[in-house]
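Predict the 3D structure for this chain.
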Amino acid sequence: MDRVVRMVGVGGVDRLEVAETAARPPGPGEVRVRHEAIGVNFIDIYQRTGLYPLPLPAVLGAEGAGRVEALGDGVGGFAIGDRVAYAGAPVGAYATARSLPASRLVALPETIPSRLAAASMLKGLTAHMLLTRTYPVTEGSTLLIHAAAGGLGALLTRWAKRLGAQVIVTAGSPEKARIAIGHGADHVVVGRKADLPAEIAALTGGCGVDFAIDGIGGAMLRKTLACVRRFGTVASIGQAAGPIPPLAVEELGPVRSLSLARPSVMAYAADPELYMQGMADLLALMQEGIAAEIGGEYPLAEAARAQADLEAGRTTGSLLLIP
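Done. Predicted structure below.
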């Protein structure tokens, strides 16, 4: 028998339940993976709360790492016992083991622990999408990254610094600001109530940043737009603070001449070429020592507590579930 954490309805963490299920053998083209670690992400919360609807009941989870336990017909390139990781659809990682298409799996080098891989796959692919495709960051680019002490924010900061960018970040507290500085941020704006546009103007000589990444949503997106130079780019990638109020196109231009992107890592991962290139680049970067920082580990059965802590902003770094 396998253990899963199943979402039985839309709403709070009380809609997650632990269940025992019969092991499902892999079908044609599939691989069965025995998980060693599972990543927890805001997309899991968005699915639980109905922002991104799923057929019910559903097993959440969009990234994991472990070992190959069984191979379906027609699968090549993997052997039982291989260490592997994955990110993206189909969701279903909140489980001790699962079967999924072999095309989703990447082989893990021995130098990358399973826990680090499970913490980094989805966030790393998101960072790759943002920094190489949404806005190709180069040496001298100036970025604004929100929630830099979180799992994605920390990885974005480290990756952008490796590319030679100047990185300005936000953090919710002085403690989180110290964490962001430790990840290489050049400047930190502390507190959600800060006059962010004024702070950014002062730090950039009134010019604004080239590229801003906003996963906070709510009222923050308008503040973020005011921090970007003319012909700059804003990526809206989430709404941890709540729904984004309606935005008139006139707020983007012609005076500001801004580009607003709403990129999806799940769509990025669904493109086979982009997925494999992103994963290859991420694994190479991880072997250089740039990866997500693990901020907390929870037993699989405590997935509800992990989500509650993430949703409430009580965590830093990436969170893991351990089967």
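The mean pLDDT is 96.
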